Amino acid sequence: MKDVKINGKPFTVADEPxxxxxxxxxxxxxxxxxxxxxxxKPEHTFLDLGAWVGSHxxxxxxxxxxxxxxxxxxxxxxxxxxxxKLNGLPxxxxxxxxxxxxxxxxxxxxxxASTTRVNPREGGGIGAWEPGHxxxxxxxxxxxxxxxxxxxxxxxxxxxxxxxEEDIIRDFEFFEEYRPVVYLSLHxxxxxxxxxxxxxxxxxxxxxxxxxxxxxxxxA
Length: 220
Hints:
11 strands, three-stranded mixed β-sheet, alpha/beta
């Protein structure tokens, strides 16, 4: 275990991934924490899709009323579970949020390295799946997960799911109904259809604030 500060806020975390926590403490991710500072409110339920080792869930816990963390990668999930427990946060959910209910196959070049995804091909300078780094995992849609967990009140949804955002944002009616604040990381090099850009434009039309940065967008 080690003590770290995320944008000045202290937390206790597992030792690994040591390089990541070093980058955090050097301020490499400060623009991401700034997005949460700008838009996350005490009344929000913070839904962390693709929580990885939990840095966003930890940071959000200092503001949001409730934290819900979701991560399918088995290596990352073990670390995430420990980090949330060390900081008194609810247990995470090990499943994938996708465009269907059932089971999905995910893989990576190296499990636990934050590139676990549904698309096996290379993209964005990241290599293809490697043998032995694939697994099957239960999956569900965002709508079904929110209903099952009875998540009520205003939602802040962080989506960093290595290309599966393509499937999640197709449910335009969900976002129209719930109007969550959305912090969305984009991975177009793993999308299967360039029509996804049109879906993103349609989704953006729901919101009065649309903030675009490199490979990310905030809708509020």
